[in-house]
Amino acid sequence: PEDHDEQSRIAAEFEKKSRAGFKNCVGAIDGILISTEKPNMKDCEMTSCGPKKFFCGRKKKFGLNMQATWDARARFLDVSICHPGSTSDYLAFATSPLKHKLERPGFLAPGLVLFGDNAYVNTNYMVTPFKAVSSGPKDDYNFYHSQVRIKVECSFGILVHGGESFADRCLR
User: N or C terminus: fewer CB in 10 A for the chain?
Assistant: First the structure.
């Protein structure tokens, strides 16, 4: 949301769920492969890229890269499905409408940021974990950072698997 009061309410919900008391998280972001069948040539012509671009080698499936931002209650805040499955999360985010909004001065209330994994880059509107640490304060930070981001993973589970019982187990 563009409203700073609503952003602050979202951050307060994340703070309640964060054992570290993070007060600055206005959303958690991640990417997921949305599986599709192999696109036909007509689909490829329409999207201006070949079928190989839709194949995600890591997942061994054809699909689309969906970037999603969620709140602490597993609600979508933003969704972008603009790239084929082989696209990295970083590139999919870098070209998204959300990134352009986040770069606009005054879009986010002062001090608020998104929490993303290491597929993203630290900026004044996004925080990511420290890389290559295994102990000490940076590792502690990474643990609590991932504890906030787990809501995104749970939300993807709800999206993919559905069902109230799954949501109840995941969002406790």
Answer: C
